């Protein structure tokens, strides 16, 4: 997978061509570990991701998994 900072640079360099819905979904699935952090309520931004390497992304996703498990346990009580 392309590191986030290179992904963002590449995305800025691409001319404005609208991609198909199928291509958009494919790209979103390939980059889910990035999108998951942006879409969560933990406040990670594109700028944050740009400064993170793949290990940081993996660690942030693992921390989010732990956080969600803790929230689920709290709700079960």
Task: Please describe what this structure looks like.
The protein has 77 residues and is mostly helical. The chain has helices spanning 4-13, 21-30, 32-39, 46-50, 54-76. The longest helix has 23 residues, at 54-76. The protein is globular. The protein starts with a helix and ends with a helix.
**Count the strands?**
0
**Per DSSP, what share of the residues sits in E-state strands of 2 or more residues?**
under 5%
Radius of gyration over all CA atoms, rounded: 15 Å
Number of helices: 5
Mean pLDDT: 86
> What would you call the shape?
globular
Along the chain, the helix and strand elements come as: HHHHH
- Tell me the major beta sheet: none
The rounded distance between the terminal residues' Cα atoms is: 39 Å
Q: Indicate the structural class.
A: mainly alpha
Residue stretches low in confidence (pLDDT < 50, at least 5 long) are: none
Helix content: over 70%
Brief digest:
With 77 residues, this protein is mainly α.
Topology:
Layout: H1 4-13, H2 21-30, H3 32-39, H4 46-50, H5 54-76
Helix pairs in contact: 3-5
